[in-house]
Design a protein that fits this description.
Helices cover 46% and strands 18% of the residues. It contains 17 helices and 14 strands.
Length: 399
């Protein structure tokens, strides 16, 4: 493996100039303790065996790769394949790192796990993992997202977590992060803040990436075993960036494989209603780390928007920022209309209802498949299923 990719992040948690621990000194001490515990616990045979057994027998891994034959035929170009993370227990990729974080909290003797959630997939997955290991769980969620993602709200309550509605600001994901972090600061010694993506202060971008990298390792081996080659293109949606970095990591040193992250253009890049952080953002600090983010001239985060609640975050994982600057990963955008079209098209051609987040990546695959030869292959990380979005989309489109 290339040295530049092996060393991400460095000992201070930086991916190039991005990441780090831009937090008070007393919190740096806590974060370093989490990092030390993670490095020690995650390398133990007992932890790895427990986590791998849960992946196989509880989550249902490995998730399959599916050739979307009818969707590919409609595009009359490249073949489109789906990495079916939507088939995981709880319906998305989030369970991969939530199990790891819950087990780590148990090994560290923590009494409560805290988190934010946007679309609710992280919240459901973490509530599930906490119920499994027997530790208290508290989820902070914006009121806008609570109304929009009601099925996931119900699941979290059934699973026994404490749900905290967030009414400040835009009442969406960024505000939920602020609220959850404030609660965490009340007792960081006994609480663990289980960040829901590859964001936040070190070691969370590294930890979440490591737990999610199983997606890419599986996909790379599965594609080679089944088709005798690697895919030409691998694509995934990008909000905070956990599902994308999860599948990209295994392909970083395969120079012939194009890696494409897809951001939400929302109502248009020429409007303020988007969350295209890597496309239009600038460098700055957010939630304890340095990244590209959508901010004003004073460095304050601006409101962002996406029809997919899990993508409306004003920052992005530091490793994505570094990979953008290196040119190893390309970052493109899909707007709401294209996302909804892909949502309905995949549902009606393949009988697979995708999460609105994942539909961004499906939409981009559809777009580029038309301009590619039939010999080309595109692998989409279908990061979640659309049960949570079905009622919203039906009402939005007046179905």
């Amino acid at each position: 493996m290339s040295t530049q990719f092996l060393k991400m992040p460095d000992d201070q948690g930086y991916f190039g100039e991005y990441g780090g621990q831009i937090i008070p000194p007393e919190l740096i001490k806590i974060m370093n303790e989490i990092n030390d515990s993670y490095e020690q616990v995650s390398r133990s045979r007992a932890f790895q065996q427990e986590l791998n057994d849960l992946y196989a027998d509880y989550v249902g891994r490995p998730s399959p790769i599916y050739f979307a034959k009818r969707l590919s035929k409609q595009q009359a170009g490249a073949s489109i394949y789906l990495k079916r993370e939507d088939l995981n227990h709880t319906g998305a990729h989030k369970i991969n790192h939530c199990l790891g974080e819950a087990l780590l909290a148990k090994h560290m003797g923590k009494t409560k796990v805290l988190a934010e959630t946007g679309a609710g997939q992280h919240g459901v997955a973490l509530a599930t993992a906490c119920a499994l290991v027997g530790i208290d769980c508290e989820i902070h969620m914006g009121e806008v997202d609570i109304e929009k993602e009601h099925p996931n709200v119900t699941k979290m309550k059934i699973l026994g977590c404490k749900l905290v509605p967030v009414s400040r600001g835009t009442r969406t994901l960024k505000d939920a992060v602020d609220s959850a972090f404030e609660e965490y600061l009340k007792d960081p010694v006994h609480f663990l803040y289980a960040i829901g993506s590859v964001v936040g202060p070190h070691p969370f971008p590294k930890m979440v990436r490591d737990f999610q990298s199983i997606v890419g390792r599986e996909a790379r081996q599965q594609f080679q075993d089944k088709y005798g080659k690697l895919p030409d293109i691998v694509t995934a949606c990008v909000g905070g960036g956990s599902n994308a970095i999860g599948i990209f990591t295994a392909f970083l040193n395969d120079d012939a494989v194009r890696l494409i992250g897809v951001e939400p253009a929302g109502k248009g890049l020429d409007t303020p209603d988007h969350a295209a952080t890597l496309t239009l953002g600038t460098k700055g600090a957010l939630h304890g780390f340095k990244c590209y983010n959508i901010q004003d001239q004073a460095g304050n985060p601006l409101p962002v928007y996406s029809i997919a609640s899990g993508l409306d975050y004003p920052g992005v994982g530091p490793q994505h920022c570094y990979l953008k600057d290196l040119g190893r990963v390309e970052y493109e955008t899909i707007d709401d209309k294209e996302c909804l079209d892909a949502f309905m098209t995949l549902s009606r051609l393949e009988g697979i209802i995708p999460a609105l987040e994942s539909a961004h990546a499906v939409a981009y695959a559809m777009k580029i498949a038309k301009d590619s030869s039939a010999e080309k292959s595109i692998l989409v990380n279908l990061s979640g299923r659309g049960d949570k979005d079905a009622d919203f989309v039906a009402e939005y489109l007046a179905l």
